[in-house]
């Protein structure tokens, strides 16, 4: 019996059937969606448009044995986190997908299920994209977002004396990745130890609230690790920083069993998608201890000297950016 072979049109139909752009609220920003040469986006009056894109590559960002629905969820969550970091609201996204024919059936169905859940959760509708065939799975997501004109929070506004804050606990996603790497067979998508790695939650509401209140002088999301991303924020603002407390992953027993130091995970582990932001000392009292159940911690202070320092065991040491870098050997 001949195989039921897929072609590009059948794959596009499968995708468009999952994402009817006019069927829910977020789709209202799409004047013309899937089915034409390009899409038409309808921006809100008085808003600036945020554009961001993100690669998600097999072998680099995920393994073929990762749950397909987690791959679908995470490829959108990663890109949406960039919109959260500017205090914006995601509106729609473009999906470019390359995959082998062997994964155009069940794997694609599960992938689209996770992507559809993320699309609804983040109120970010699919507007279009492209598909092609390739031996490995390559995913690129472009997100279009909006922010009230003049209210986008940039990386470049931090000033000496500002307090440095992070949301959540750092190192949890890296710990989840280490657990998956040492496990046998397909990873579980239900373990609390791996949830943050598989299903990250971009902090959209927090970013929007901070921007609306005008609290941050600078903000970005933590995708490549605190040591690397904070150095980027400091470079953009031509400042330095000294850290004195890091909210670490609490699973110390599991961490130690894997030969990982919780502090090193928190400093250099990637994929947390927490928010890193700076606030003038006179406004720090307006920052709550938590926001909708997410802990907010002052971890240090911005300095004039363009150095990244860490106070550890009563000593101040140089902190070298050692997070994720795809070009590092």
- H-E order: HEEEHEHEEEHHHEHEHHEEEEE
The average pLDDT score comes to 90
- Domain unit count: 2
What is the rounded Rg? 21 Å
How far is the N terminus from the C terminus? 48 Å
CATH topology of the largest domain: Phosphoribosyl-aminoimidazole Synthetase, Chain A, domain 2
- Percent in helix: 25-40%
Q: Which CATH class of the largest domain is shown?
A: Alpha Beta
Main pleated sheet:
8 strands, mixed
Report the sheet-strand fraction: 25-35%
> How many distinct beta strands?
14
What best-fitting shape do the alpha-carbon axes yield?
A: globular
Say which CATH homologous superfamily of the largest domain is assigned: PurM-like C-terminal domain
Which stretches are low in confidence, meaning pLDDT under 50 for 5 or more residues running? none
- By secondary-structure content and strand pairing, the structural class works out as alpha+beta
Total helical elements? 9
CATH architecture of the largest domain: Alpha-Beta Complex
